[in-house]
Amino acid sequence: MNWDDETASAPEERIVGAAAEGDDQAVEAALRPKDLGEFIGQEKVRQQLDLVLKAARQRGATADHVLLSGAPGLGKTTLSMIIAAEMNAPIRITSGPAIQHAGDLAAILSSLQEGEILFLDEIHRMSRPAEEMLYMAMEDFRVDVIVGKGPGATAIPLDLPPFTLVGATTRAGLLPPPLRDRFGFTAHMEFYEPHELERVVVRSAGLLDVAIDPAGAAEIAGRSRGTPRIANRLLRRVRDYAQVKADGVITREIAGAALGVYEVDSRGLDRLDRAVLEALLKLFGGGPVGLSTLAVAVGEERETVEEVAEPFLVREGLLARTPRGRVATPAAWTHLGLVPPQAAGPAGGSGGAGSGQQGLFGS
């Protein structure tokens, strides 16, 4: 396969990347469900959250603070907007990286209305001073505003209206215990099953006015890496292909051909994923090999391989991280249609790494 160097240098633009950038954000807004009844998947989270919100409405009180954790693209932002809709309250959206000083947070908190939802994305990346201010705001609905500097500085208490903080994080382990403990409801978002993603694809196709049959939806869902955001992105690319190359109807054959153009294979691996596996199998006999060596072989930065490619490969059971280095699993050999060194036949000799590689290349 002919790998494009420009594509290789920009993994953040992968079609199977879970981050939402550019046009994705606008399209996501149009495809988002508006209430819990429309939200697909995450059954336990939906049931638990429904109870929390209904109880709060019956009491006429603000809902408890909510912490949503999980990988990007699973619906944390969507759920925060649903919480606001279910509580019939406005929502304020910001993120941890945008709050670098306690004063930034104080300005946001002091302007909240009673019952308002404050959605704080990537809450684990908030600065420590702001984080400490948030403790008091969540528990006592009060903040101390520091006026002046040095010995003459004074703290002026500022009462806040009751509000609900919805925090979202992809790395819940980085949150300090005092912050985690102040959330009344904590939910972990799981990756979606293929049948759930099929429903997501069918729903999104209806909203986009795209004709799709069940087999076409299943083909897209099976390559979406368990993530609704990726499923919606693949759907739009397949729609384009069906519009230009076919009659506009998405079938299994059309979906497979379209995703082949975008180098997304049957298990959702893209160019970068396959490059990592091929280097590991063909150059290093399946490993173990160090991360830095593997990154050099692929022509990517170490961080790109470790943070962008490896998580999905590990989750799919195609690669293992061991103390000695990265090791390919039997499933990786099968997926790429290669023969492990120890089973390479006479050319593989008695199973050494070097002779195994000769067997691979010899065939």
UniProtKB/TrEMBL annotation:
It catalyses: ATP + H2O = ADP + phosphate + H(+). Residues 343-363 are annotated as: Disordered. Pfam families: AAA_lid_4, RuvB_N, WHD_RuvB. It comes from the Bacteria. Its EC number is 3.6.4.-. Residues 193-263 are annotated as: Small ATPAse domain (RuvB-S). GO terms for biological process: DNA recombination; DNA repair. Its main location: cytoplasm. Residues 12-192 are annotated as: Large ATPase domain (RuvB-L). DNA binds at residues 302, 321, 326. Belongs to the RuvB family. This is Holliday junction branch migration complex subunit RuvB. The lineage of its organism: Bacteria, Bacillati, Actinomycetota, Actinomycetes, Kitasatosporales.
